[in-house]
Design brief:
Length: about 325
């Protein structure tokens, strides 16, 4: 099995666009059926040994709950309940409208009542078209989907390794159905004052200073996969700070803000891709933390250890 297998954006773009919308449909169920957590941590998907999951949700006073899982090995969607009931259906060949209809049918069959707010794509070009009318997106290449899940799983574990090095407030490593990326975010204690014009999603996501790191698969505006990091609000001079390895760079993402980028194809083909990705994540964090005035030593957590006695033994 290859570490960081190749998955060029252009080769699976049509499949990615279908899968992204499938993930948004299920994500909106998760949004409706889970208790809200700070910075929307309740909403993203998480990795499993066969795909991605909503995790259990929808608990009621009778003790009932349910879960939705994508299986990217057998390419099925599974809806299960705490009582052991299950409905599943295959993913290949479905349009978004088909997928939406089958998921609604599965929930009804399992006596799960969930009302999806705004049942159409979020922040995608066809955001005005309801899911149940989208017969356009139906591409599903099984090999590409399986490889997407393998890459997600490998990146997830590298991000977990990076996350373990810091003991401050940190998000889970999670897969956002909004932007179809996987990310982990470190938070400072400093509140951020937003103007009234900022939308409520952004206000909650960035209510504190953050340094976020992750990976995305590309989109029409940036048509290649890449590891990334950003600091928000962005401190002056961030883009002048050094990054590692040499292939990493700062790119402008609009309104004077910048992303640290490590091209996936370049990273995966080096002699030490895992070490290079970790070096990139650490250097981007240091760039953001130092320019924003964070205390780097306060929450340093080498090897995931905070106990002083254990740290001395290691």
């Amino acid at each position: 099995m290859e570490l960081f297998p190749s998955l060029p954006y252009a080769e699976w773009r049509a499949t990615k666009e279908t899968l992204h919308r499938f993930a948004q449909v299920v994500g909106k169920v998760r949004l409706a059926a889970s208790p809200r957590r700070n910075h929307w941590w309740n909403v993203p998907h998480h990795l499993t040994g066969r795909g991605i999951t909503t995790r259990p949700m929808g608990l009621d006073d009778q003790g009932r709950f349910f879960c939705i899982d994508f299986d990217f090995v057998d390419h099925r969607l599974l809806v299960t309940t705490g009582a052991g009931r299950e409905v599943s259906f295959p993913l290949p060949g479905l349009s978004v409208a088909d997928f939406y209809r089958l998921l609604q049918s599965a929930l009804t069959e399992l006596d799960v009542s969930v009302r999806i707010g705004l049942p159409h794509p979020f922040d995608l070009p066809d955001s005005g078209r309801p899911f149940d009318q989208d017969t356009e997106h139906r591409a599903y290449d099984q090999e590409s989907v399986n490889r997407y899940w393998v890459i997600l799983s490998q990146v997830n574990l590298v991000l977990e390794e990076y996350a373990a090095e810091w003991s401050g407030k940190t998000s889970p490593v999670h897969h956002f159905w909004h932007t179809f990326d996987i990310a982990v975010t470190r938070f400072s204690d400093t509140p951020v004052a937003h103007s009234a014009s900022v939308d409520p999603v952004t206000r909650e996501a960035y209510s504190r200073e953050v340094i976020s790191a992750g990976f995305w698969f590309g989109d029409p505006a940036f048509p290649k996969a890449a590891f990334y990091s950003y600091t928000a609000p962005e401190p002056a001079g961030l883009e002048r700070r050094p990054l590692r390895p040499a292939a990493a760079s700062w790119v402008e993402r609009g309104a004077g803000s910048h992303l640290a980028i490590l091209d996936y194809e370049q990273a995966r083909t080096t002699p030490s891709p895992r070490a290079d990705v970790l070096a990139f994540l650490r250097s981007a964090y240091r760039a953001g933390a130092e320019t924003a005035g964070w205390d780097l030593e306060r929450n340093a957590c080498p090897g995931g250890v905070t106990d002083p006695a254990a740290a001395q033994r290691t």
